[in-house]
Amino acid sequence: RSFIYLIDCQDPERYGESLDYFDKVMEYFKEQRQNIPIMVLLHKFDPEIKENRELNKRALVLKQNLLKYKEFQIYFFETSIYDIKSIMDAFSTGLSFLFENVEMLYSYFEDISKRYNILFISLIDSTGITVGEYYSALRLIDKLKIYNLYLEVLKKVKMENKEKYEFSDILSNGKRFSGVIEVLNLSNFDFYLLIIIEEEKENLEKTISALDAIEAEKDKMEVIISQILT
């Protein structure tokens, strides 16, 4: 379980009211001995004002005020309806608290990423919530680009009723990457496994071999992931 608390970061006049109500909620949790993760969404942190100095200063003050409850695990997220990924990341974190073995999923993704030199791997449910992911040395701008590509490709996967879809694009550093979406059926629910591999310009056969090896391991991955999540 987790508790989500939303604050409108563009309405500073109501910060005091938000903090007072948060205090009451925390006191209730302490009385009930409910030590659950707290997710604070600083909402309306829109892309066009995200770098605004005054907004960031106010957000920092809010965080400092809320962190006085050291006995609770408090997580902060800057969200906006104009940045769907920010909302999905927040709710994905909340969902992860429901899965006792989410750390095992992370470890498994880390293991296969090292074996196949994967840049990014993510398991996403049919509603768009990320159940687990692993990535290394991937810039935020590239992660957002990959997620937007995923949304575009997913439409084709559903429209064409495909079990697998491959695509390719360019990272912010100019290097190309290959991506694949694999449809996994876990407990009669569809999940989407997104895998990104950096292409080897001088040795494309190596990239193709890696994708083929991942495809060959699909059934095994499906079984392992299912065991972890159930």
Automatic annotation (TrEMBL):
Pfam families (UniProt xref): Gtr1_RagA
Signal peptide annotation: none
UniProt keyword annotations, A-Z: GTP-binding, Nucleotide-binding
GO BP term (any one): positive regulation of TORC1 signaling
Protein name (record): Uncharacterized protein
PANTHER family: RAS-RELATED GTP BINDING RAG/GTR YEAST, RAS-RELATED GTP-BINDING PROTEIN
Any one of the GO CC terms: lysosome
